[in-house]
Every structure is written in structure tokens, then in C-alpha cells.
Amino acid sequence: MAPGSPSRGGTGDMAEVAAGVGRFKSNYAVERKIEPFYKGGKVQLDQTGQHLFCVCGTRVNILDVASGAVLRSLQQEDQEDITAFDLSPDNEVLVTASRALLLAQWAWQEGSATRLWKAVHTAPVAAMAFDPTSTLLATGGCDGAVRIWDVVRYYVTHHFRGSPGVVRLVAFHPDPTRLLLFSSATDTSVRMWSLQERSCLAVLTAHYSAVTSLTFSTDGNTMLSSGRDKICVVWDLRSLQATRTVPVFESVEAAVLLPEEPAPELGVKSTGLHFLTAGDQGVLRVWEAASGRCVHAQQRLPGPGWELTHCALARTAGLLLSVTADHNLLLYDAHSLRLRKQFAGYSEEVLDVRFLGPEDSHVVVASNSPCLKVFDLQTSACQILHGHTDTVLALDVFRKGRLFASCAKDQSIRIWRMSKAGEVACVAQGSGHTHSVGTICCSRLKETFLVTGSQDCTVKLWPLPEALLSKGTGPEGSPVLLQAQATQRCHDKDINSVAVAPNDKLLATGSQDRTAKLWALPQCQLLGIFSGHRRGLWCVQFSPMDQVLATASADGTIKLWALQDFSCLKTFEGHDASVLKVAFVSRGTQLLSSGSDGLLKLWTIKNNECVRTLDAHGDKVWGLHCSRLDDRALTGASDSCIILWKDVTEVEQAEEQAKREEQVVKQQELDNLLHEKRYLRALGLAISLDRPHTVLTVIQAIRRDPESCEKLETTVLRLRRDQKGLGRARRVGWGHVRLGVRGQV
Fold first, then answer.
1. Mean pLDDT (whole number) for 612-620
2. Based on the number of CB atoms within 10 Å of its own CB, is 431 exposed (0-12), middle (13-18) or buried (19 or more)?
3. pTM (predicted TM-score)
4. What are the WD repeat spans here (predicted)?
5. Hey, which residues does 139 pair with through a beta bridge?
6. Which of 99, 289, 520, 544 is 20–30 Å from 225 (CA)?
């Protein structure tokens, strides 16, 4: 027996594993999906700040800001990618444009398209904007044309040519009486068109790169333009001259004019013109137009992917929306820039997932990003956690559920704590590995240590300091620094998985070198080697009940090993590709596995049977975790979907039992009808019960009764469609019945 193993015997013959405690599971069903809802492009808030509109491929998704849930998903009939959209100022009409050169007008609150028409452009529409009256719509195309549509009377009112290349930007003047439209194309100039004179009144040139946004003052006499040439230009629309060029020292994707009122928290102390910029530095900054000074700037967050790609102000709601290059949507209070809401639009490749909280109320997700995302399963609220500077690769949770750990490509580890209110903060960090840290595992009995495995082929044991266990942090709230207690070179290739035994005395490691190894903790003394897989190992897991280790390999198999003599007890074959994760369920009597084929498989250990194959992901399932009550499972995959699965074994068994009881009742009723010679009613019941011989017996009995025989045709015609379909569905078994009916009718 391996030192430190639980004192229970009889592992080698798998007696306890086979016997099991409790019921076997037979099926899981998808309870909930967390899917991408934004993959880049335009984002727009309605004027009330209650709904968020964003593009996701062929759809425009409408989010409820309060809950973060997708209320509606609108897709045009052509099912092509959406290239532009705009919501009218009165929040009533939404218009979308697709690559198929079609425009669709939506009554978005009902989710129905009210009109579909050709855009007339010879290339896709790249920009779109409503006028202040919500009756005119301007579209700018990749063909260099600008068209104006009357969305009430459904016709084209204007067609402006003269813009070279793609028209990237269109905007109406806020005063509808002036009838002015502004556009910008690839020549970096801004054109002002008169709807009344049907001509271009002026070409405003000051930028040397693409113009990214146009915004107007409330009196309509001033316009602000921003560009990727790192400047913002203030224009006097009466003289059509640039009055101020402000160097902002970053490529600006959007700029908005702030209300001309003091806002001390934003550094706005006067009523002069101030504007806010969003760009590649990843922070929102407030500028005073008169002096060209930056009067306020956000603190920059660590890591890549925080470049801002969009910014918009909802004046009525007092909200400011910004979008990052990582497709995160951040909602701020416009007067203080305090963060109000966070939305994770697109997680790219999900690498790991875990349940969080004492009651598994939250989930934490590691995707192809330095940020972690924490979702509240009840409210759909999202928190985006910053700290790592490179992609987070793995997660694990301590026993009580509030403390969890992460490791990343930045060669560091971090420990996070979730408060009772659901707020998460980093409380400890450590570094010491010389390559990416790809796997992490927390102690099982108590919150005392964690183990990490790295591409540097070493394992490190990190004890948790007393300051952390007493719910403290470092000086001034900074994370506590972790120090490795032991370092051991374990394998000749990358270590892909580490697992701590339920008694905290054993450690298992799985490597790309095709072996798993067993170690005694805390000295990291080698106890034995598990050899037998033909390719590298992706996952190792201890059984919660027995002295057994499960390993998942790139050779498509799962193996169970005895800790006593390191022999292979069972091999499970069924995945067509690499098995990436494996977990024990049903108190150690079953296995749940996930693979690079996108499938989950439920196995019963006793007979090596694959009980169920679950197909809901479209790509590699990297993340798999089971809840404390063993009634739910969580998976995350390369298709950027996170799926919450529910054990529906008892529900299905109850349904099956109810069906059996119903069949018994119907059979008794049928027997009574036959005994009472009520053949016409018995006929329909016999068909419902799938009793072809009984049906034939009933028909023969009816044949002997002249009165009933006359009513047979009427009875057959009155049968329900599903009862008639039974005969068609079972042509062989019901053939003699059809012959019998044909002879009588």
C-alpha cells in the first residue's frame, strides 16, 4: 500500500468501486448556456439605458442591462453577417444591414421584421445613422455612396456621391431644421451635405488618418472629430473652420462631448467644452478643449486586450458605455466614471471552469485572456477580474468554495476570495516557475496549500500563509506574497495535470511523457509510476471513495489504476479523439469525461459501459467540473460556450414510472371494455397501447356483431392522427390488422 493512502483495503479487485453507494446516473440535460453575444462591431445603448444592442455575426442581440440576459436575437431572412445597424432616437425602430445588401426594419420590442428591402448600394453598408426625428435614415456604403431613406414612407430621398472609398461614418446634425448630414470616408476628410440643396456644402480637412467619430454640442454650433492620427479636432460649424486641434497621444476610436456642467470627479471644474476619449491606451480620459489638457484619466489595468474600440454616451440615462478589444462591455456612471456593470461579450476559447461559492451559486471562467470572468448563475451578473498579465490556463477551488486559485502563462499563480456579497478580489500571488504554469490543484481537507505544475517539468508546493487564512491581505490591501515550500522535477515533458488526494497526503501528476506518477506530500517523494498510455496525459483524478486514480489521455482512453500496486484496473474506450478531462461522479461509481471531439461521456465503472454521450459543444471541451451535491456539471469549450448540465436521472425515472402506471391503468380499462363488449371504445385504446393482436381481436369481435360492424368505418375515421400513425409506423407488426380492417371497411 502506498504510504499516506487511506487505510481502506480491497482496492485492487475494485470491490467497493463496483458496488458503489447510491444510485447510478443515466443522463444529464442542458440547464443553461452562457454563449457569446458580441463578437465585435457596433454597440448601442437605448436612450433609457435599459437595453443594449450589439452585433454577433448574423444577429443583433438585445440585452437587458439590469440582468445581463439576452432578451432577443434578431436575424435577417438572408442569414448573412450584419454589417451595420442603428436604433432610432425614439427607441422605436431598429434597422439592420447585411452582406446580402438587404436592409431590414424591425419592431424590435416584438422581435418582428416589419420591412425588408434592397439597399441599392453596390457593396455592403458600412455605416448607418438616424436623424433626430427618427424618420430619416442615412446609409454609407463600401461603394462610396451615401443614401438617405424615409423609413415612414419607404423611399429614397437623397443619393450623394463623391466620397472616395468606403464611407465609414455618417451622422446627422442634431438640429433637424438645418437638414445637414456629415460623412467621412477613407480620404480622412469630413463632408457636410445639405439635404435641402442636395449637394456637398463643405469638405473639412484636418485629420491625417481615418476619422473614427463625430459628435456635436447641444447648441449645434460645435462639432468634435476624432481619429487614429492621435488628435481630436474642434470645429466651428458656423465658420466651418477648425478652432482647436488637441493632441491626445493615442489612436482614438471614439470621442464624446460631455455636458457643459461642472463634474468635479472628472476634473471638470468649469462650464467650458470638455470631451472624453477612448483609444488604444485602454483608459477613458477627459480633456479640456480650450487648453488641450487632460484633466482626468482612469487607472490602466494590467495585461493586454484592454484597448478600447468603442465609446458612447446615453445622456438621458446618465450612462457611458465602453468596449474593449477583448469584447468586454463596461458601463459607467457618466458623472463619475464609476463602474456600474460589466458584460463579457465573447470568451473565445474557454480553457477551464469551476463552480464557486458554498452553494455553487457562481461560476468562474478562464478563457484565452489574462482576465477571469465570474458569473452569478441567478442574476447573470458578470465580474471581470484583472491581475494576470498573460492567458490564464487553469483554475481550482478550495473546499469551502469562497477561495480559489488561478495559474497563467505569465508564470505566476494568484489566489482570489469571494465575499458573502459575491465580490471577488485577489488576496495572494506567487511566482517561481520558469515557464507557463498549466495546472493547479488546491488541498482537499483544509485550506492549507496548493500545488502547481508547469511546462518547466517541475511541481511546486505552496503553503497558504496565516495572514491569508485569517482573511487578511498585505499592506494597504495588496495581495499576500506566496513562497514555494518544495520544488520537484517530476517529468521529462510538460506537466498537464496535478491532483491532490482526498486526505491531502498524496499527489498525482500527469505529463506529456505518457506517464502519471504518485508522490507523497509534503516532501514530494516518488512512490510509483503509472505506465500504459500510448500518448500524453491530459488529466489525473483521485477517486473520492477508493484507492484508485483515473487518467485521461490523448490516445482516446481513460484508465483506472490501483494506488496499492500501480496496476491498471480498467480501460474505457469510446472517445474518437483526446480525452481532456475526467471526473468521478455518483460517489466514485461512475466517470464523466470530456474530449477534443466536443463530447461528454458518462461511464459506469462496474461494467465499463458508456451510459450516455452528451453532444452540445462544437469543439474541444477543456473545462469540466461537478457541483458539491453531485447534481450538476459545468463544461467550457473552444466554441466559447459554457454549459451548465443538470442530472435528470431521477426526473426521467419518475416520468418512466408515471408512464408505466398509466399503461397499467389503460390496460385495466381495456380489459374492462372487452369484458363489457364495448368494442368500439376498446379499439382506440388498444391502438394507443400498441397492442396489435388485441386490435385484431376487437375487429374480429366487431365483425361478429352486425350493429357494431356498421359503426366500424366511422370509428376508424374518428381515430386521432397519432393513433392512425401507429399503424404506419409499425408496418410489419400491424400488417395483419390492416388486412383485417380492409376486409371490414
1. 94
2. middle
3. 0.83
4. 118-151, 160-203, 204-245, 385-426, 430-462, 488-519, 530-571, 572-613
5. 128, 147
6. 99
SS (H, E, C) 615-642: ECCCCCEEEEEECCCCCEEEEEECCCCE
pLDDT, position 463: 95
Q: Give residue 14's pLDDT.
A: 45
Largest CA distance in the chain: 107
> Three cell numbers at 25?
446516473
Parallel, antiparallel or unpaired: strands 293-297 and 285-288: antiparallel
- Which tens digit of pLDDT belongs to each residue from 152-187? 998 999 999 989 999 999 999 999 999 999 999 999
Record the cell numbers describing residue 294, joined without a space. Answer: 487632460
10 Å CB burial of residue 666 (0-12, 13-18, 19+) is middle
The pLDDT, as a whole number, for residue 741 is: 44
Of the candidates 277, 383, 376, 375, which has an alpha carbon nearest to the alpha carbon of residue 328? 383
Q: How far apart are CA 745 and CA 741, in angstroms?
A: 6
By C-alpha distance, which of 406, 452, 405 is closest to 433? 452
523 by Cβ neighbours in 10 Å (0-12 / 13-18 / 19+) ranks as exposed
- For 2, 396, 525, 549, the CA distances from 506, given in Å and listed in that order, are 9, 17, 10, 11
Q: Rounded to an integer, what distance in angstroms lies between the CA atom of residue 284 and that of residue 274?
A: 13
pLDDT of residue 581: 97
Q: What torsion do the CA atoms of 687, 691, 693, 697 make, to the nearest 10 degrees?
A: -50
> CA 85 to CA 63: how far, in whole Å?
15
Q: How far apart are CA 259 and CA 335, in angstroms?
A: 9
Average pLDDT (724-740) is 45
696 vs 147, more confident: 147
CB 482 within 8 A of CB 428: yes
Phi (first) and psi of residue 200, to 5 degrees: -85, 120
pLDDT at 92 over 80: yes
CB 652 within 8 A of CB 26: yes
Per-residue pLDDT band for 6 (boundaries 50, 70, 90) equals very low
Q: Is 552 within 8 Å of 579 (Cβ atoms)?
A: yes
Closest by CA position to 553, among listed 509, 512, 492: 512
Q: What is the mean pLDDT of residues 359-382?
A: 92
The dihedral through the CA atoms of 63, 64, 70, 75 has a sign that is negative
How far apart are the C-alpha atoms of 300 and 283, rounded to whole Å?
A: 6
